[in-house]
Write a structure and sequence with these properties.
The chain has about 210 residues and is an alpha+beta fold. It is built from 3 helices and 12 strands, in the order H-E-E-H-E-E-E-E-E-E-E-H-E-E-E. The radius of gyration is 31 Å and the shape is elongated.
Length: about 210
């Protein structure tokens, strides 16, 4: 009887051990399935973060300061890579961190370059005493003074800073109001408009060749 009881105990132990092994194997299989399922999600998130941090960033156009080139509630992708290998140029539309007290990003066009002299005369922008041709502006639209940039008062742009203006000059808070922006404040260059679908496409930029650098 003692031997029978010992055999029964041994048999139960083997059954219990086999059961534990089965549970472990099943758990490992489930864990492997979970890992296999999560792996592409994690990889996709990592790729998204790499793109978001170093290559492109989505932005929403808020307001009409860049009308008619950009409309309120349009969505664009900002190219963050180009300015890591090159410098911003006059006529390019950029996204930048707005100066305080604003707590958002602005979209404007680069008008004045570092170490240039900018002045407003009779509703037009002059760079180094030359009138800036702005064919992207609506006919008859004048550039009026604001609190920082006054009519007929030349301003020398400091090194590493840019003067930016909205295309819709009468409805734009820009460098005429808050002054030049630092190079480090620039997020990137407006690259692609992806919403609404009817306006989808590469964003054009003005190319200036005749204004002194």
């Amino acid at each position: 009887m003692r031997h029978a009881n010992q055999l029964r105990y041994t048999t139960n132990f083997l059954v219990w051990t086999n059961f534990n092994i089965v549970v472990i194997i099943v758990s490992m299989q489930r864990g492997s399935i979970i890992i296999d399922t999560l792996q592409p999600v994690v990889m996709a998130f990592a790729v998204f973060m790499m793109i978001y941090l170093f290559l492109f960033q989505p932005h929403k156009v808020d307001g009409n300061s860049m009308y008619p080139r950009f409309h309120d509630k349009e969505y664009i992708l900002t190219d963050k890579l180009s300015y890591n290998t090159g410098s911003p140029k006059r006529g390019e539309v950029i996204v930048f961190h707005a100066p305080p007290p604003a707590n958002s990003d602005y979209i404007k066009r680069i008008i004045g370059m570092p170490e240039e002299t900018i002045v407003l005369k009779e509703g037009y922008v002059y760079i180094n005493d030359e009138k800036l041709p702005e064919e992207y502006l609506p006919n008859g639209l004048l550039t009026n003074q604001k609190s920082f940039l006054r009519n007929n008062v030349p301003y020398k742009i400091p090194p590493g800073y840019y003067m930016v203006l909205g295309d819709n000059r009468n409805y734009s808070s820009d460098s005429r109001e808050f002054g030049p922006i630092a190079r480090k404040a620039i997020v990137g260059k407006a690259w692609v408009r992806y919403w609404p679908p009817s306006a989808m496409g590469i964003i054009p930029h003005e190319n200036y060749l005749t204004i002194p650098k």
